[in-house]
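Students often ask why inverse folding is considered easier than folding. One informal answer: many sequences map to the same fold, so there is more than one right answer. In these notes we will look at a single instance of the problem. The structure comes first.
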């Protein structure tokens, strides 16, 4: 067992973070500023928007304006969710270079989240991947509920592996494994990765852990021991999924960076700049960052 020497961090706050904000919709200008601050902190992969139905997720209804409004920094990838062809076509109008499709390892969650079965979702993703390939756009894939489902409870690692394999074989360059409701524990996370890596090479797997039960960092350490070197996280621990009641945000980027720094693992990201960004966006939302490291270190200046 050895840990990776460097980790690719995929920032989720502008999408997974803000999609679940209750109350007033966050202004487009604030979203754009968040994305630009995150890029300035050295984050190279940012999920910036979501081209889903605005009836389903009104918080992401300004995806076109957000994507068109950001000042892009060279070397930074700004990605967006596209559940179907309509989403992808909208994303292409604003020049995306990377998109993501999202499926699940749970039938019930698939129905609640994207209104179709797992098999139907995979069929729906095929033309999205084909169109993206024609347009020269990379596609990431998600599998939700990899360590438990709010409707079905336990999920078999073999089911996660099966859906991840389908996404990978369809052409997703990376498959992100979502503990959507943050119920996993380290041994379960390891078992899930062990099953999945038999179908998808480990370097193409990412860990996307929500922190509802406070286990996300422990789970990340466990899967890094299995060779996972791509981690999804959200600054200030923002977010959750609107179709997973009670789920809290992704593991905080600040906490992941502190862990990685302590382990001597490279990310190229400025922790203090992320902490400052976390305080700023949390202030915009009227609260404190949901990151222990941010609270301990405090804002600079
Ligand atoms: P549907 O209602 O079955 O779609 O929704 P439809 O094809 O029947 O279309 C119905 C209406 O929606 C039509 O409009 C379409 O034009 C419109 P109408 O004719 O009624 O006026 N429509 C769209 N509009 C804008 N953009 C689109 C789009 N597609 C259809 N892309 C659909 C199916 C997938 C669209 C819907 O269920 C949906 O938007 N779901 C999104 C749910 C979501 O965003 N969930 C959160 C993200 S996933 C997540 O957080 C998990 C993750 O973080 C990993 C983890 O933590 O596990 C990724
Ligand atoms: Mg998520």
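Output (designed amino acids):
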């Amino acid at each position: 067992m050895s840990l990776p020497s460097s980790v690719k961090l995929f920032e989720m706050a502008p999408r997974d973070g803000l999609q679940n904000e209750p109350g007033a919709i966050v202004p487009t200008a604030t979203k754009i500023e968040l994305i630009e601050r995150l890029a300035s902190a050295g984050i190279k992969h940012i999920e910036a928007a979501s081209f889903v139905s605005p009836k389903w997720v009104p918080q992401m209804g300004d995806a076109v304006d957000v994507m068109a409004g950001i000042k892009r920094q060279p070397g930074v990838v700004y990605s967006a969710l596209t559940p179907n062809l309509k989403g992808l076509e909208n994303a292409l109008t604003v020049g995306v270079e990377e998109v993501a499709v999202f499926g699940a390892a749970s039938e019930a969650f698939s129905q609640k989240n994207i209104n179709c079965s797992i098999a139907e979702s995979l069929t729906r993703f095929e033309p999205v991947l084909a169109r993206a390939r024609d347009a020269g756009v990379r596609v990431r894939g998600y599998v939700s509920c990899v360590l438990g489902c709010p409707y079905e409870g336990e999920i078999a690692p073999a089911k996660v592996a099966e859906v991840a394999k389908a996404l990978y074989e369809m052409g997703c360059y990376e498959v992100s494994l979502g503990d959507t409701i943050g119920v996993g524990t380290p041994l379960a996370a390891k078992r899930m990765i062990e099953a999945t890596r038999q179908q998808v090479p480990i370097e193409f797997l990412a860990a996307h852990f929500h922190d509802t039960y406070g286990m996300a960092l422990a789970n990340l350490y466990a899967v890094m021991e299995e060779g996972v070197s791509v981690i999804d996280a959200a600054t200030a621990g923002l977010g959750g999924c609107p179709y997973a009641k009670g789920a809290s945000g992704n593991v905080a980027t600040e906490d992941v960076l502190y862990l990685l720094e302590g382990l001597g693992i490279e990310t190229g990201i400025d922790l203090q700049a992320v902490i400052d960004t976390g305080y700023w966006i949390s202030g915009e939302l009227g609260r404190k960052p949901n990151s222990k490291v941010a609270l301990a270190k405090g804002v600079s200046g």
